[in-house]
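Bench notes, afternoon.
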Amino acid sequence: MKYDATMVMLPREKLLAFGPQALSDVELLALFLRTGRPGVHVLRFARQMLDHFGSLRALLSADLAAFEHIDGVGVATFAQLNAVGEMSRRYYAAQIKETCLLTSPETTREFLCAELAGEQREIFIVIFLDNQHRVITWSRMFSGTLAHVEVHPREIIREALRHNAAAVILAHNHPSGKAEPSKADHFITRQIVHTCQSLDIRVLDHLVIGHGECVSFAERGWI
């Protein structure tokens, strides 16, 4: 096997040498935790936590009750983990307002994935943009159940006109984790596109967010 120096480096050393992107999920969590528990090294403890929750996304969006049976994790650690998730959402919310979404679609995806991570019901978000495709504002316009959200195109139009928006980006999540759009998703998208066209407002995309995946209507050629 080829020797790799990063395999024997501690997370902090590895981060300083190669940047945070070089760390695995286990190493990132271990760096955050700093210590393990009696008889359990921090890297092993981090691995056990990720195995228990299934992913960083699930861990960061879990409620306090989910940590009750994990030795070594108290209210303080839970609060810190919640703060990390919220800081991530606020970071992307700030970044999206500073970016031209036409030239940086990955920023949109990152923002929406962070914003909708852990939601247990469908949330429909609309991002309103000016004629240079810069973000004016964004809104969680509709919320629904585990498998459905009722969307009203006229309300989207009303908000777009109120903000003098020239374009919009639509997005909603699938709490089931599967991002593939449903027939209902296609139907409401066509309705919104048709309604917006009558007032010369462009629908740039509709993004469906799952667990670790995202489907873009624009990329699929559906818009």
